[in-house]
Design a protein that fits this description.
heterodimer; A: about 450 residues; alpha/beta; Rossmann fold; 3 domains; 6-stranded parallel beta sheet; 4-stranded mixed beta sheet; 23 helices; about 10% strand; B: about 190 residues; about 20% helix; binds iron/sulfur cluster
Chain lengths: ~450, ~190
């Protein structure tokens, strides 16, 4: 069994929760569809966004230097970090210089990637998450299970219990409004008394040196309004050439991510305000290697919108913790493989090749195609036999159970597409009639048997 | 080699074939009745809107919209209902507990209900910390979409600026929409 299948077993054992999780994500996916349908030029917009990314990636060094030049002229300190370790060290040194003890941060996948919070906590710096979902996960002591909706797998009663314990909320009150406002009250104190603010970066505009942070809660802006130091951290692929390019991504991001016309706050930071110090850390941590990987270089186009996760039938029914990489879903399967095939090949099974991810991605990243390619490549790695076995095993399971197999065919697709998926999911949870466009023309099994495929 | 040079050298060494910058080959979303569309989309974003008609006093409008407000913070001339000038405070923390903040927006975006606000007060905290936010906006300053927004000639003229679309919100608990996560719980755009 693959690592994903093994981990998923636990999640799907609770059938009701699986269905609930599935529905919650699909609800977000449907909101995204309505938004996309409301923009007649949606497909042309995606196409242009994708090509603009390709252009940017082909001139990454040029645009990063331009960004650095302008940000520096604006009075911002720019730092460069080769890897997670250097990133953490730079951040800690800035904090130390200011004698900082209390850091308030908005959501950043990069901080997660670098393990920043535990690093700082080991050095006596408290790092409080200010996004509600992230804060819930921090108080629960478990990592987020989604990159945009960190607590999507948590039920309101569970939030109520944690808040009772941590924030002294009323017994058994699990009303989302009540709990959200309790968090508002409690985090307000963290905002007011933090000495360091940290934010991620959604986009860095090379032509002006400004960087953009998008939130619905206003936590990034509240966080940066009081401390004397603002540290922003960004993966080097976040740079965009100019405002015309930025317009494309701002139009696509919120519509794709949560099905809103825009986030509530799209904040543009350019110059430190009087008395404040502003730092930007530009992080590589493997990204420059992705550039050299022709088959997977498109991953550098990713906006981290999460829509490929929301639409993924396997993610929806198995949850974020079934994946061994910290980013789940199609984007995480691919980024995990780029990080370390040895560690993360077990996630490759979490794909039915339904291509729904490739069809929703605002940057038109060929996510499913890349997963397929990785599976082919396993042949050339010493991981082949191990990872192949689990797929065969899944197939065998299905083949030995004709009722499952035929129900699968009735559902309009063949079981070979989704060995792991069939193995671990009830057929009624398949999302029959849902929008799962462009199935692979050949079955996965057939392709697998043929060995190398022609692309 | 410094990390900077090292990273840039790696990007150079791994560079892919240069790709041309794409041209825009579509006509982006545009609207026939700007003010009506803006009022409609503000509602989608969870904001209220009011039209200031000739002869009306903006202070009356604000007072009527927020009759319970005890502290109203603004540095705008003409906002005589203000009880606090935020620029005279020594510490932005003193703004905690403000009922209403009144600020000026530069322009609105019809496709998504955003209003562009630039830092215009000593502390940007004012935009986020008050319970309710009132944004004054010239109703002729409306653009169709983000392409037009960013193409405005003076757009880059800011130190800090924010597109605000309605009140602060979250759906992090079971996807139930809750207004008032960390920022203003209510936003009213007054179209002048
Ligand atoms: S791969 Fe595409 S859909 Fe997935 S998170 Fe990135 S940008 Fe969004």
């Amino acid at each position: 069994m693959s690592s994903h299948a093994k981990a998923a077993e636990k999640f799907i054992a609770d059938r009701e929760r699986t269905a609930w999780h599935d529905q919650a994500l699909y609800f977000v996916r449907e909101k995204r569809d309505r938004m996309a349908q409301g923009v007649p030029e949606w497909e042309a917009l995606r196409e242009m966004a994708s090509r603009m990314k390709r252009h940017t990636i082909s001139r990454l060094g040029y645009y990063l230097e331009m960004f650095e030049r302008h940000a520096t002229a604006n009075g911002v300190h720019v730092h460069w970090a080769k890897d997670a370790e250097e990133h953490n060290r730079i951040v800690y040194e800035i904090i130390q210089k200011h004698g900082g003890k209390r850091l308030v941060k908005s959501k950043s996948m990069l901080a997660e990637e670098c393990g920043l919070t535990p690093y700082l906590e080991a050095r006596g710096v408290e790092a409080v998450e200010s996004d509600l979902g992230e804060r819930i996960m921090q108080l629960m002591g478990t990592p987020p299970s989604h990159i945009v909706l960190p607590a999507i797998h948590v039920k309101r009663e569970e939030v109520g219990k944690v808040f009772e314990r941590e924030l002294n909320t009323e017994l058994d009150n699990s009303d989302p409004t009540y709990l959200t406002h309790a968090a508002r009250k409690s985090l307000r104190q963290n905002f007011l008394h933090a000495d360091i603010a940290m934010t991620g970066v959604n986009f860095a505009v090379a032509s002006s040196g400004a960087f953009v942070v998008c939130t619905n809660e206003g936590n990034a802006d509240m966080g940066t309004s009081f401390p004397k130091v603002h540290i922003a951290i960004m993966g080097l692929e976040k740079v965009v050439p100019d405002y015309d390019a930025l317009a494309l991504y701002v139009r696509l991001l919120a519509r794709s991510a949560t099905g809103q016309p825009s986030t509530t706050y799209t904040s543009h930071y350019k110059k430190p305000v009087e008395g404040q110090e502003m730092h930007i850390v530009i992080v590589d941590n493997g990204r420059s290697d992705i550039l050299a990987n022709a088959a997977h270089v498109n991953m550098l186009k990713c906006l981290r919108c999460g829509s490929c996760i929301n639409t993924c039938p396997v993610y929806r029914r198995t949850g974020g913790y079934s994946y061994s990489y910290f980013i789940p879903g199609p984007v995480g399967i691919n980024l995990g493989m780029l990080k370390s095939p040895e560690k993360y090949a077990g996630n490759l099974s979490a794909c039915t090749l339904c291509h729904s991810c490739s069809n929703v991605c605002p940057a038109k990243i060929d996510l499913a195609e890349q997963i397929y390619r990785w599976r082919q490549d396993l042949d050339g790695m010493h991981l082949a036999s191990k990872e192949k076995k689990f797929i065969d095993k899944g197939l065998k399971f299905v083949m030995e159970r004709p009722s499952l197999f035929y129900a699968a065919i009735k559902a309009g697709r063949t079981a070979e597409h989704m060995p792991r998926f069939v193995l671990y999911n009830r057929l009624d949870a398949w999302g029959i009639g849902r929008e799962l466009p462009d199935f692979a023309p050949e079955t996965f099994n057939a392709l697998w048997k043929k060995g190398k495929v022609k692309e | 080699m410094s990390s900077r040079d090292d990273i840039l050298a790696r990007l150079q060494a791994h560079a892919i074939t240069p790709e041309k910058r794409p041209e825009m080959d579509f006509k982006p979303l545009a609207f026939d009745n700007p003010v009506e569309q803006f009022e409609r989309i503000l509602k989608v974003a969870g904001a209220n809107s009011l039209r200031l008609e000739p002869g009306q006093d903006v202070n009356d409008l604000i007072r009527t919209a927020y009759p319970e407000a005890r502290t109203i913070a603004s540095n705008l001339p003409g906002i005589t209902c203000a009880t606090v000038n935020p620029d005279l405070l020594d510490d932005p923390r003193a703004l905690d507990g403000t009922d209403v903040a009144v600020i000026r927006g530069e322009f609105g975006v019809l496709e998504n209900g955003m209003v562009w606000v630039k830092q215009q007060t000593r502390y940007k905290a004012l935009f986020f910390i008050s319970e309710a936010l009132v944004i004054l906006l010239d109703r002729r300053a409306l653009v169709n979409n983000m392409h037009e927004a960013y193409a405005r000639p003076d757009f880059d003229d800011f130190g800090y600026g924010c597109f605000i679309a309605g009140p602060s919100k979250t759906a992090d608990i079971e996807q139930a929409l809750v207004i008032g996560a960390h920022g203003a719980r209510a936003v009213t755009v007054i179209l002048e």
